[in-house]
Amino acid sequence: MNAYVLLLDDSRANLATVGGKGASLATLKRSGLPVPDGFHISTQAYKDFVKANLLEKLILEKLKKVDCAEPQTFEEVSIEIRSGFLEAGIPEAIRDAIREAYLNLGVRDGVVAVRSSATAEDLPEASFAGQQETYLNVRGSEEVLEAVKKCWASLWTARAIAYRMKNHIDQSSIALAVVVQEMVLAESAGVMFTANPLNGRQDEVLVNATWGLGEALVSGSVSPDSIVVEKKTGAVKDLKIAKKENITVPAASGTAEKKLKGARRKRKVLNSEQIRELAALGKKIEQLYNRPQDIEWCYSAGGFSVVQSRPITSLLAAPSQVDWTLPNPKGNYFRGSLAEHLPNPASPLFGSLGLRAINDSTNELAEMMNMDLREAQYQYILLNGYVYMAYLLNFKFVLSMVKVTLQNYKLMYTQAGERWRQAHQDFADLIAKIKETEAENLSEAQILERVYQIMYAAGKYYTVIQSGTLPSASTSEMIFSRIYKSLKDRNDPDASQLLVGSDSVAMRAEKSLFDLNKWIQNSSSLQSYIMKKSSAELAVLLEKKEIPARLKQEEWIEFRERFTTHLEQYGQTSYDYDFMNPAPAEMPAVSLDALKLFLEGKGSDPYRRQLEAEERRSRVTQKILSKRRPLLKRWFQKALKWALECAPLREDSLADMGMGHALIRRLLAELGKRLTAGGALKDPQDIYWLKEAELVELTKKMGAEGKITDYGQIIAERKQTWKEQLRISPPAILPENSPFAKIVPWSRQNEAGSIIRGVATSAGRVTASARVLYSPEDFNRMQPGDVLVAVTTTPAWTPLFSMASAIVTDIGGPLSHSSIVAREYGIPAVLATGSGTRLIQDGQTITVDGDAGTVTLLSL
User: Fold this and answer.
1) Of the candidates 845, 810, 806, 809, which has an alpha carbon nearest to the alpha carbon of residue 826?
2) Is residue 327 reached through a cis peptide bond, with omega within 30 degrees of 0 on the bond before it?
């Protein structure tokens, strides 16, 4: 062969010459594994094509126009670059080399598959697969040449450009190779993971299988059979046969999707012998690479072929690798209540000082209700870094809970709003009092005492709403839904659709930004300036109180005042109850992103949406009241009124949970600054990685002579441990075999398949890129149209919903914040997936079905 074309098993085929996919196929072929025959078109061919057509200059010029804060620029630049590629001619020397290699391949009917292979693809540290194109059922040398050029152009899709920028991959250093292989006319196809990515077990093989070509599986148009195989023996441990509606088959040109008919729709794709053979093949490939592999396979003419193998870039910590030894074997440990608002591992400072204050306030309120929580061992504790609510479920505790509930029934349900408003005022008064003294004027001990006081008040506040607004909202919606279901017709909207549009804090915050957007539109110069600047740049300008050149001073000042007022009203809450995370007011760029959506005309008008909800509710209500069932109609009206009164209270009270969040962070920032100046910390933010006792010890030593303990190494180790804990999928309930685990929806473990099951809470079906967000630090990665994937959300996350096409969470249910806001925005939501954030990879294409309650994992 020559510099442009290499045989598939050529010893020169490596990452630099043939890209990640090509290098992997070459290794497999050289090892005697069943890989369809073919050849590589090297990266040198791509480079010479680019050089001959002066495309490098075009690429560099166009990339200058990309603005990470403006998602549409990626698509605009991509179209311009790819057009340049498709209009360019392939140099004759490259054309001749490809034609000759294709003719020498001598495949049946001349049918081949043409696959892209990037030099930044399939690396262990960068899951880049799926960014470029594959063309199947290509016939004749001219079609092959055209497909090769399309593959080269696909290196510059908007998604690929953005991915490289996100992963700091030098755009000028990349090149694309192409693999041309004999086309396997597959009877069946699928993917195989040689370690189970859904639970981390490396002694299991996970297989997804479907009829026909594998494109139906990749596109998400078919649900595959899901098979869990014991790696050592090849025995099937679990088999779920899917109902397969579609099949991808070769067409006159390319492929076509057809409806699958007959018995194959419900028949399993692979028999036991085939499964054992496929698992053995996967085991060989894993041994070859010495690490778990993600393998694409197909079956034809009685044998298996491998068309791709790449490392599994993310693997959950297996249950066997995580020690969930319980402090009390007879105790119960639940990731609910307040723990539900702490989705990630807790910072050491919150896990010590924060939880101590919350437990103290919970015990005090219980004593006021004549309950002894100490005997029941009711408290919040840490297990593997995660917050759990612990309790000893004995007869005395259950009887005590029932007694208190009955005694305080009226207080909990009929006076929920009044109690919340009083609790809100008490909490606000404490914050105002603490604010009277600037942090700079407090001693270190006083700062810690005030942090404790705020967290104590926050715990007390949560206990009040937990026994008031939260159960009232859930109970009222549940009762209304049951009554409505008995009265509605088949085509009437779901009960949840009658309860959207409430004037909750989320709705008011959205209206505030929408109003600001309307005001900005009165000035074309101001609007143009805001749209051209990134949200991060705008945030810096607003903080520095600088007035940009060429703008009217009074307009900019008024914009700053209006936006600051918005943050003061709606930014004093929390994304995550752990005070390590900033409050929305500290991250103005997120709200600026949402504001820009309105300015672009992409945001949903909250006023119109609210009006439409009211009109729909009125229309359905009149229809229900026209029926001749007087008793049920009276109950319907009462239940609807109660549910509409309680719905906004739930959101408003949850938003207030973080009322003291920003103040705590301000106090700790001052203390962190002092510790850094004194040499105890390298960075003020490191204060969150100390435990309360360590912090107390440090503050005592600050004013005295003597050596201050250097916590640098300890902090570094704790940060690394936190990252490792983040990969754990914490069980919703411990022990995991508890009968209560069957009740809690997010306790489910998705053991097999590319389908994650959860609770359907907002209707609709969307296929889009997943954006897995764990904390506010990730928010800048959210792009319009992404699927928001999170452990859970709070009212502070609401601006992201305006950008999201769908919502997926690990925990939550039909009455959670995620569900309520998703219905408000009319986007699909699947909640309580158990470990969606751990199973879905950032940037992966997924299908969210808010009717079926499923998330289908597609291409990466």
Assistant:
1) 806
2) no
Closest among 112, 14, 25 to 309, alpha carbons compared: 25
- Which pair of structure tokens corresponds to residue 340? 């539900």
pLDDT value at residue 415? 77
Structure-block tokens of residue 245: 């509606």
How is 325-366 classified by DSSP, letter by letter?
Answer: --SSTT-EEES-GGGGG--SPPPHHIIIIIHHHHHHHHHHHH
Two structure tokens written together for 662: 């920003």
Q: How many CA atoms lie within 13 A of 315 on its CB side?
A: 23
Fold of 5-182: Dna Ligase; domain 1 (3.30.1490)
CATH 1.10.40.30 fits 188-315, yes or no: no
> How crowded is residue 553: how many other Cβ atoms within 10 Å of its Cβ?
9
**How would you classify residue 686: left for phi > 0, otherwise alpha for psi between -120 and 50, otherwise beta?**
alpha
> Tokens at residue 527, please?
């609007």
Length of the chain (residues): 860
3-state secondary structure 610-655: HHHHHHHHHHHHHHHHCCCCHHHHHHHHHHHHHHHHHHHHHHHHHH
Cα–Cα distance for residue pair 14/25, rounded to 1 Å: 10
Residue 820 one-letter amino acid: I
**Angle in degrees, CA 763, 765, 771, rounded to 5:** 105
Task: Quote the pLDDT of residue 371.
Answer: 63
Name residue 250's beta-bridge partners. 255
Per-residue tokens: 124:
């262990």
Q: Where are the beta strands (DSSP E) in 733-839?
A: 733-734, 755-757, 759-762, 765-772, 787-790, 806-809, 829-831
d(CA 285, CA 292): 9
Alpha-carbon span 438 to 469, nearest angstrom: 34
Residues of the chain with CATH 3.30.470.20: 188-315
Tell which residue, 69, 89, 826, 164, has the closest CA to residue 493. 826
CATH 3.30.1490.20 domain span(s) along the chain? 5-182
Predicted model pTM: 0.68
d(CA 113, CA 111): 7
Q: What is the pLDDT of residue 125?
A: 37
Give the 3-state secondary structure percentages of the chain, helix then strand then coil, rounded to 5.
50, 15, 35
Two tokens, residue 523:
């000035």
Closest CA to 362 of 375, 371, 353: 371
Low-confidence ranges of the chain (pLDDT < 50): 121-130, 751-752
3-state secondary structure of 222: coil
Give the pLDDT of residue 220: 58
Q: How far apart are CA 307 and CA 298, in angstroms?
A: 8
- Which residue is associated with the tokens 């694409």? 296
